[in-house]
Amino acid sequence: MKLLSIAENTVTVELEWDDLALLGYVCRETAGTGLFGEPGEGALRAYVDSLGAFCESAGMAGWAHGQVREWCRDADYTLAAFRRSFGTAEGAPPAGEGSNAA
């Protein structure tokens, strides 16, 4: 993650696909905890779900380019494959222990 600028009411950061994969994972895990179960918290749950989906879709867009050139010869450009590559899929090995580990 790289901080690009800070201004009034605005912060600009640059995120790599693995940053986005982690943020998406954190959002999915938080949304699944029941943290937003109180009356009136449905909007917060929807925001967390949407933020998680945005992070994963943006991260996947950046991830796919590297997959084409390097690892993904079977063309498995799915959300499940994206989550597995970072270790955030259910039942996946921790990050760094997957099939793409160096």
Tell me about this structure.
The structure is a single chain. With 102 residues, this protein is mainly alpha-helical. The protein has a domain at 16-86. It is 52% helix and 11% strand. The protein contains 3 helices and 2 strands, in the order ββααα. The chain has helices spanning 17-31, 42-71, 79-86, and strands at 2-7, 10-14. Strand 1 and strand 2 (10-14) form a beta hairpin.
Q: Strand fraction band?
A: 5-15%
Which strand order does the major sheet show? 1-2
Rg, Å, rounded: 16 Å
* Overall body shape: flat
Spans with pLDDT under 50 lasting ≥5 residues? 92-102
Q: Assign the structural class, choosing from mainly alpha, mainly beta, alpha/beta, alpha+beta, or little secondary structure.
A: mainly alpha
Helix and strand sequence? EEHHH
Q: Kindly report how far apart the N and C termini lie.
A: 21 Å
Annotation field: number of helices? 3
Question: Averaging pLDDT over every residue, what do you get?
Answer: 76
Helical content class? 40-55%
What can be said about the biggest beta sheet?
A: 2 strands, antiparallel
Question: How many beta-strand elements?
Answer: 2
Helices and strands in order:
Layout: E1 2-7, E2 10-14, H1 17-31, H2 42-71, H3 79-86
Antiparallel strand pairs: 1-2
Outline:
The protein is mainly alpha-helical.
Question: Which terms summarize this structure?
Answer:
single chain, 102 residues, mainly alpha, 3 helices, flat
